[in-house]
Design a protein that fits this description.
Layout: H1 7-16, H2 18-24, H3 26-30, E1 40-49, H4 52-62, H5 73-77, E2 83-95, H6 100-118, E3 121-133, H7 139-146, E4 155-159, H8 170-176, E5 182-186
């Protein structure tokens, strides 16, 4: 009977033995062939009603020079969102330096797209993170990153080719996805990239 591999031996075989990696590596985990679930295993969205004050702020942001008529249906006539939407994703394993910034950006973009499609305001983005770790060979890069001065947050412009996207039914939304949808960050600034090796 073979003795089980140590953790170090298992990781070394993943890196050096293609057949072993094909059988026991990340691909098998994400396809559900191993006991561990994939790193990401679902997200949920939930909504809340916006207060009248919040809807007024949205209105005046959109129409700064217009007067307000004191009737509640006025918001609906101008397609001012009535609800905010939040997204929470579940993640079993988190590579803090290389993976988490990309995960945040990806789920943030997903929240923006869903909010745009249903005419709601993107609200909270929540990560429910399990094994959150920083690899030893990423420590210097992480220190360099957190020592940087932060830039202001950019905004995201989504152009679906149809400004009334939120008024479409689900079949029309899906067919509109065949058209070009552009995502344009505005006022985006970034520092030079920091490279780090991928750890398995």
């Amino acid at each position: 009977m073979k003795s089980p591999l140590s953790k170090e031996e298992f990781l070394e075989k993943l890196k050096t033995d293609r057949e072993f990696n094909s059988k026991y590596g990340r691909k098998n985990i994400t396809e559900g062939k191993m006991v561990l679930p994939p790193c990401h295993y679902g997200f949920q969205v939930y909504t809340r009603e916006l207060s009248v004050k919040e809807r007024m702020e949205l209105y005046f942001k959109q129409y700064p020079d217009w007067a307000m008529i004191g009737e509640h249906s006025f918001f609906d006539k101008h397609n001012i969102p009535a609800r905010a939407i939040s997204l929470m994703w579940n993640q079993r394993s988190v590579d803090t330096f290389l993976g988490l910034p990309f995960n945040i950006a990806s789920y943030g973009l997903l929240l923006e797209i869903i909010a745009k499609a249903v005419n709601m305001i993107p609200d909270q983005l929540i990560g429910n993170l399990g094994d959150t770790h920083l690899y030893l060979n990423h420590i210097e890069q992480a220190i360099q990153q957190i020592s940087r001065e932060s830039y202001g947050l950019p905004t995201l412009k989504i152009n679906s080719g149809n400004e009334n996207w939120h008024l479409l039914d689900i079949d029309e939304i899906i067919s509109s996805l065949d058209n070009e949808i552009t995502f344009k960050p505005e006022n985006y600034q970034s520092h030079p990239a920091i490279k780090a090796p991928l750890s398995n």
